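pasting for ref
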Amino acid sequence: MEKAIEAGEKPAGNVEHHEDMGVTPHDVPENFTALAEDISYGPGGIRGIIASPFVFGAAFLASLGGFSFGYDQGVISIINVMDQFLDQYPELKGGGFWTGFMTAMLELGAFLGCFFMPWLADKISRKWALSVVVIIFCIGAIIQTAAPNYGTLVFGRFFGGIGVGTLALGAPLYISEIAPPHLRGALLVLESVSIVLGAVVAYWITYATRHLEGDIAFRLPFGLQMVCAVFLGTCIHFFPYSPRWLGLVGREAECLQSLSKLRRLPPTDWRIKAEFQAIITEVEFQKKMLDRRHPGVTGFKLEIATWLDLFKSRRRVAIGVGVAFFQQFSGINGFIYYAPLLFRSLGQDSEMSLILSGMINIGQLVAVVLCFFIIDHVGRRPLAIWGAVGMAVPYIIMSALVGEFSHDWPGHSAAGWVTCGFAYVYIIAYGVSYSPLAWVRPPSYSCPSLQPP
């Protein structure tokens, strides 16, 4: 459809039937599912979010899973250069390999956790899956906080990474399924906002604790990462189940009630019925497609078969995976995890390197918040194109400056500051584009037959 149907405006066609539709859908127009996706419950953007405080609260709470991911980025970047931390784990003084290995173990755990989350979310619901992985995350955080030696620290980061990966994946899944169509893009940006906010909060907490005596300087910020995760795992149960999950498991009456609660409209409202119909029709279509593609296949074999089905739609998968891959391949983790070392290598002293590192997180936060306001007006594709240009140009300039002046930064301090400045240009371009796009873009390309069973 060329434009969304505004709140209060009924669709053309069999309107009387929609008004009389009960909980169980039947006899609907062929275009009813497409129509439901185009329904507008009100204005989009920030005005729509202000008008929908309940669904915003649910989405913001779920996005705190991203906060835990960002918190680790912020906390480890400054802990890696903390004297108390290096004294506790002398292996880290032996060279960059052991520092990089310890840091990257969280990413490895997160990678593996991503494969675990879809099955868990379908099995026990999106909400309970988030609560379960919060427990995994907290166990990893406890191991990191209490680690007496380097090996235990590495294991704690790997185990906690499983929780981080599942939280970062489960949050946008829940958000995309509770958000009304006209607010989905803006609400999914909350995941990116929370990641960066977590990095900012963790960084400045650790910046303050570095002045404490002994290992409490790094163990305290390690332990504090559990606070937000526990809050998420507990409070998420004050909000409804995902309507799509309820439809998936055959709890259709609860699906309708969940939509009614999320949209703050009675179950008899035609827009609620239309969206409900879309969910049930999609689930039924998906099950029929699975039966047709894999007759007689059940259990683990069906799980594997549905993963393989993803690659039958190569273009969709290439776009969805490509955006996420190149988001990480852009080098953002190098900037966030090793920012103090980066700025020190550009000729800055130790204290200024720490300040610049903290401000780079704040710059990214400002950019991501800006994207929250403009994404539905500018569009995903223009942000992807111009964001890539905005990141590439600073990289080229920084490479040229480093190649020319890195042999003598004290003698070329102005060039060093210019290089630092272009690092900020890169981070702002990233924050307003690829930082949120990796969470927002893939759901835009999903289709019923390729969504998780």
